[in-house]
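User: structure tokens for tRNA (cytidine/uridine-2'-O-)-methyltransferase TrmJ, please.
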Amino acid sequence: MSVADPDPVPCDPTRIVLIRTSHPGNVGAAARAMKVMGLRELVLVQPRFPDVLVQEDTVAMASGAADILVRARIVDSLDAALEGVHTACATAMTPRDFGPPTAAPREHLPLLAPAAAAGQRVAFVFGSERFGMSNDEVRRCQVCLSIPTQPDYGSLNLAQAVQLIAYEWRLALGGYPVVERTKAPERATLDEVHGALEHWRGVLEQIGYLDPAAPKKLMPRLQLLLDRAGLTREEVHILRGIARAVAGRTPSAPM
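Assistant: Done. Predicted tokens:
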């Protein structure tokens, strides 16, 4: 008996391919990296553990991206993983002596986006944690993406590499809008700010910081400070709460 997919996959031009992964946690973390960038198709080539998609570490590291694991496929070869793909992008730290051109993701991926928008499928291929991709596997691809890193140490965890490529690809496809607060905080009225200022005047006199006989310009300066701050009503309540707490701890406070 098969269970119906509760969330059908929309048209997605992207395929993430992981070759000979060793650690189940990396598979789960890669699935999570994909999900946050809206990528849905994951294919594993000869993983170390045939049951990697259901192992405890995999599911734990997926952290809410179990649907990616449910849809993922395991195949025996890179050729099988790239079936139906129009453009394959290898990933490697350093360029190879012979093979496809090497490019930075941010420079190259926008060039692929129009074809992907037209329905052509793009695959991003990642090698194993220990050995990366072989020369033959890199040559199976049309471009080699190299993430610009600090020259003396460019080693990235597999899931980190997937996250970076997925982020750059999502930007190239148009990105997602930044979600802003739906309701702006309510601005304090002038009388509420004045009430807070008067509250603090009494507290400052109580603790001996303000001499009512020679106030100088302390209160006008505080007025300017509060005006510049553009206080919200909540912030006014906080200031008055602090004033009450200070007044309650001074020796001259009424018992």
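User: Anything notable?

Assistant: The domain at 14-172 is CATH 3.40.1280.10 (Alpha/beta knot).
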